[in-house]
Amino acid sequence: MEKEFRTESDSVGELSIDSAAYYGIQTLRAKGNFEITGTKLNSAFIRNIVVIKKAAAIVNKSFGLLDEKKADAIISACDEILHGKHRKDFIVDAVQGGAGTSANMNVNEVIANIAIEHLGGKKGDYSVISPNDDVNMEQSTNDVIPTAGKLTVLTLASELNTELGRLNSALLAKAKEFDGILKMGRTQLQDAVPMRLGQAFHAFATSIARSKERIQNSLSEMRTINMGATAIGTAINAREAYFNHITEELSLLTGERLCRADDLFDGTQNVDGFAAVSGTLKALAVNLSKMCNDLRLMSSGPRTGLGEIILPAKQNGSSIMPGKINPVIPEVVNQVAFLVIGHDVTVTMAAEAGQLELNAFEPVIFYQLFESFRALSGAVRTLSDNCIVGIVANRERCSEWVNRSVGIVTALNPYIGYLKAAEIAKESLKTGQSIKEIVLREGLMDEKKLDEVLDPLVLTEPFKHRD
Predict the structure, then answer these.
(1) What is the rounded CA–CA span in Å between residue 43 and residue 370?
(2) Rounded-to-10 torsion of CA 308, 293, 458, 202
(3) 200, 279, 374, 385 from 369: Cα distances, Å
(4) Per-residue pLDDT of the chain (467 residues; tens, 9 = 90+)
């Protein structure tokens, strides 16, 4: 069956459009202009643009700014999209020129054509419902797109927050489980002093809790929006009733406590809030990657490395070496961290690159920032479920490293001095004699006091049983 087409025109000219499509000419032009990443607009971002359109229609209807039948048709069209319909009609690339105008018009045209059909018209007959005059009434791309971006950050942050909470709980559970297991602490990859394996996992949990709080604190800026600013902050084409009520209506629809920016010029031209959020995601990525580096080191071997912990075996580790198991979950989290750190550079450069009254580079900011949230949520989820909860301690290996190390000689410094302790450590490494045997042989301390000072368990807690 041959496709049927309709013809639409704009200020540039005419185009033929698939009659079944709900997008229009401006969307089709954008698709041709911006075949960039092959990635379409984030689905949560689309939903939030649609929510803004619905809020605008409700306000415009309430104050008689938009014909009631048109408004009802637009609201109904928005609801269809919010219920998951018409996803295939959002066809523009995530990265686009025009500060997001293409994304805004893709949504405007889809809503308009759905609404037109609701009123008995045919798609493309914009005398019934206009994408610009009716769906975009009182708005501009320059307030719709940054507001939708902020709402999407809040949406995606909720999922990440949940996953970070699960990871923190899993790490704390392991910290408790491993609390009685002594291991060697290491600095610069060299033996240092004893600690408990549970303390290592508690430190991981603390870093994740701090990252989680840092991200949540950064989100406060996402609740300050510039709806009503229209083009640059002057509220041109917005009437007072709409201007005074759009933020309130959007708060009701989203469940977020939104407020209008005090300075709408600043709210329209500056996107440093997104750079701040991205920075907190980068810091989380750094903490996650460091933790995964440690997990890979502590599990290395298993027979010729540290082998202090055993990670869950998730898949074969080699196409040629039988029995080899690799730390694939920490490895993928490392890679996500690299990705997020790179995304943060892009967000930073794009935020800095705006000129005068608008930042034209919001599309790439959102593309990278949304991807950071999505990738981190997936990475944290698999780290919790496929790694942390299944980690087993190798008690024997941990004990072996503590017993073989001379690191506990550090505890003797206050009693025999650094230089003498260094001599004893050197002799122990050379002869294989224990620290205790050498100290007792030289009569430097009595055995009871020495046992107290060198008790590895005591050494793992600050100030416990010390003179």
Answers:
(1) 10
(2) -110
(3) 31, 10, 9, 24
(4) 688 999 999 989 999 999 999 999 999 999 999 999 999 999 999 999 999 999 999 999 999 999 999 999 999 999 999 999 999 999 999 999 999 999 999 999 999 999 999 999 999 999 999 999 999 999 999 999 999 999 999 999 999 999 999 999 999 999 999 999 999 999 999 988 899 999 999 999 999 999 999 999 999 999 999 999 999 999 999 999 999 999 999 999 999 999 999 999 999 999 999 999 999 999 999 999 999 999 999 999 988 999 999 999 987 877 677 778 888 999 999 999 999 999 999 999 999 999 999 999 999 999 999 999 999 999 999 999 999 999 999 999 998 888 788 877 888 888 899 999 889 889 888 888 888 888 899 888 888 888 888 887 777 887 654 54
Geometric angle at alpha carbon 300, from 297 and 305, rounded to 5°: 110
Q: How many helices (H) and strands (E) does the chain have?
A: 17, 8
**45 DSSP β-pair partners:** none
Whether residues 133 and 147 fall in one domain = no
Q: Please list the active-site residues.
A: 318
pTM tops 0.85:
yes
416: CATH: 1.10.40.30
β strands within 258-303, DSSP E: 259-260
**CB burial of residue 9 (10 Å; 0-12, 13-18, 19+):** exposed
CATH of the domain at 388: 1.20.200.10
Closest CA to 143 of 359, 368, 367: 359
Whole-number Å distance between alpha carbons of 222 and 24? 31
Do residues 142 and 233 lie in contact, with contact meaning Cβ atoms separated by under 8 Å? no
- Measure Cα distances from 195 to 170, 191, 204, 417 in Å: 20, 11, 14, 22
Residue 75, SS3? helix
Q: Provide the domain count of the chain.
A: 3
Domain that holds residue 438: 406-459
Tokens of 442: 């030289």
